[in-house]
């Protein structure tokens, strides 16, 4: 099943298409934009001393791809069934295969239908970034970036990369960042502090960030005196980054703010979506140095 199709969703509508799959009879979801294709399980070559969540590698059309077992990631006992599928994905500039129990269908939702996990049942180590209520069941959206960061820390944002930029001066510009992943918020805080950016306000989704910015504008304060730059992820419950960018650029009081989209979904095929909503720059995770250089250029 190939998902190499034209993205039909208009940019900035706050909609998302989700591929629903199951693991241990529970329902999970992944953004269709991350999915290249869904295939039957192939022969896996095990790798000595690999991370326990990595089954091994497969060869697919001449490419060698790692296979991550979602049963292991989610803490379920290993089991193989006749309906098992491999979900071939591409994000964060890399291709990864996820082994799941079954794949059912594609759904279209608005991000405001997707709730962020409650602190009552989702601690700091949770793999869940969103909850969708659908009829008599729930679909849990998983933090695939976090899964890969835990398996291979070299593939995520690292303070060591910032040090390659050389000595940095302290910067008092105020930055607003919308990022739903707790792990990514911590990594961004550490790396941007190293880069000299100390005045950072983090929000877990675009809705909270927009309410904060709107509150400043409604108070009568000049927005450019209070905030000099907005950085946003794309995938977030309640309001995604494309919709946040569109709302900022359409607001007479906020449109002066530069917006940088920093996401694992920045590809040549999808870059036009950010351009359509008026993003001032688009940087692919985990290119933290490119983000910092864009920040240096774009801050008011």
TrEMBL record:
PROSITE patterns: CHEW, RESPONSE_REGULATORY. InterPro entries: Chemotax_regulator_CheV, CheW-like_dom_sf, CheW-lke_dom, CheY-like_superfamily, Sig_transdc_resp-reg_receiver. The keyword rRNA processing does not apply. GO terms for biological process: chemotaxis; phosphorelay signal transduction system. Residues 174-300 form the Response regulatory domain. It holds the Pfam family CheW. Keywords: Phosphoprotein. The modification 4-aspartylphosphate is found at residue 233. Residues 15-153 form the CheW-like domain. This is Chemotaxis protein CheV. It comes from Heyndrickxia coagulans.
């Amino acid at each position: 099943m190939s998902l190499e199709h034209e993205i039909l969703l208009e940019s900035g509508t706050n909609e998302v298409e989700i591929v629903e799959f199951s693991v241990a009879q529970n329902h999970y979801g992944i953004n269709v934009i991350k999915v290249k294709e869904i295939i039957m399980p192939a022969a896996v070559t095990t790798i000595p001393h690999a991370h326990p969540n990595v089954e091994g590698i497969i060869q697919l059309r001449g490419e060698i791809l790692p296979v991550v077992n979602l049963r292991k990631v989610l803490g379920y006992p290993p089991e193989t069934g006749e309906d098992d599928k491999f979900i071939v994905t591409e994000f964060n500039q890399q291709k990864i295969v996820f082994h799941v129990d079954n794949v059912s269908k594609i759904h279209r939702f608005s991000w405001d239908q997707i709730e962020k996990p409650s602190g009552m049942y989702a601690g700091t180590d949770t793999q869940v970034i969103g909850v969708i209520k659908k009829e008599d069941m729930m679909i849990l959206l998983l933090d695939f970036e976090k899964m890969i960061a835990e398996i291979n820390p070299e593939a995520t944002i690292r303070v060591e990369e910032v040090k390659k930029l050389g000595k940095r001066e302290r910067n008092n510009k105020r930055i607003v960042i919308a990022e739903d992943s707790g792990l990514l918020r911590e990594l961004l805080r550490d790396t941007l502090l190293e880069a000299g950016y100390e005045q950072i306000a983090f929000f877990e989704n675009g809705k909270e960030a927009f309410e904060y910015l709107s509150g400043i504008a409604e108070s009568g304060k000049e927005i450019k005196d209070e905030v000099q730059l907005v950085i946003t992820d794309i995938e977030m419950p309640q309001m995604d980054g494309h919709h946040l960018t569109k709302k900022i650029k359409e607001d007479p009081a906020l449109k002066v703010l530069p917006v940088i989209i920093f996401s694992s979904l920045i590809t040549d095929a999808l870059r036009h979506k950010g351009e359509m909503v008026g993003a001032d720059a688009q940087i692919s995770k985990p290119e933290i140095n490119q983000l910092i250089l864009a920040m240096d250029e774009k801050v008011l």
